[in-house]
Write a structure and sequence with these properties.
N-utilizing Substance Protein B Homolog, Chain A; 143 residues
């Protein structure tokens, strides 16, 4: 996998995990150097992804619900949220799916969920924006 696309996604996932599970503030994390290791363009991308995910958290959860029998753990759910956001923004499906499958696979506790991550994100990507527009869950204009 191209590391240039994976690093900002991993960083966005880390930010989202800290915010949703630890109750930390994004400003606190950024000021603490959570994104300092990234190049400026990757830093901006990671922050934008995390911000978009936070703004659309409830909507993303409602859109993911039909694909999940029960909610997975926070690590996997945050990967699915970020993947969904990127797919809705028109990112290349293969890159998005591969990146979030790798993020899930790298965590020893969630390795077994990489198949679920792959299946859900591929199905969302295959259905495309036309199918999402027909769903009762409204999309934000930015998506």
């Amino acid at each position: 996998m191209d590391q240039s696309g994976l690093l900002p996604r991993r960083s966005a996932h880390h930010l989202l995990m800290q915010i949703t599970t630890e109750g930390r503030l994004m400003a606190e994390l950024i000021a603490g150097g959570a994104l300092a290791q990234l190049a400026p363009d990757d830093r901006a991308r990671a922050q934008r992804l995390a911000t978009d995910a936070l703004r659309g958290l409830d909507r993303a959860d409602r859109m993911l619900k039909p694909y999940l029998k029960k909610p997975p753990g926070d690590h996997v759910m945050n990967a699915l949220r970020l993947g969904l956001i990127e797919l809705m923004q028109g990112e290349a499906a293969h890159g998005v799916v591969n990146a979030y499958v790798e993020i899930v696979a790298r965590n020893t506790r969630t390795q077994s969920m990489k198949g679920l991550t792959n299946a859900v994100l591929r199905r969302i990507a295959d259905e495309g924006p036309e199918a999402w527009a027909k769903r009762p869950v409204p999309l934000t204009p930015g998506w």
